[in-house]
Amino acid sequence: MHTQETEVLSAADMTWELMPNHIELYHREIVSAExxxxxxxxxxxxxxxxxxxxxxxxPHYHDVVEIxxxxxxxxxxxxxxxxxSYRAGDTFHVPAGVVHSVRNTGDSPSEQIxxxxxxxxxxxxxxxxxxxxxxxxxxxxx
Length: 142
Prior knowledge:
By secondary structure, this protein is mainly beta. The chain has one helix at 33-39; strands spanning 17-18, 23-31, 45-60, 64-72, 74-79, 82-87, 91-94, 100-104, 110-118. A hairpin with a 2-residue loop joins strand 5 and strand 6 (82-87).
């Protein structure tokens, strides 16, 4: 069953949870697998992550695709056997099974949104979403 109501997760109600097995990595899960199921989408998780000063997501790989968008700070990304510098606004697409790591290289915490999507074979072609405008009856209530 798909949810027909908009769900709001307030940042004020969310706490930063320490991720085990990494260095100074904290997260807030902003979309869980269960929430994705209610929305009727294929999604493993979406995390809002924070790396403390000197923090690092240690080298690892997983069975899902990861899209990492840096929102705050400066980081280094491990690609293959090389480290490359990036900053807020940069995005990484990491295929399933690829070893990767992100390290905070700035003098303040860095933040990122990490989107974990199942990797599947024989996936139908994707397309840009469609939008339908409705009569503007809502703006008068602002």
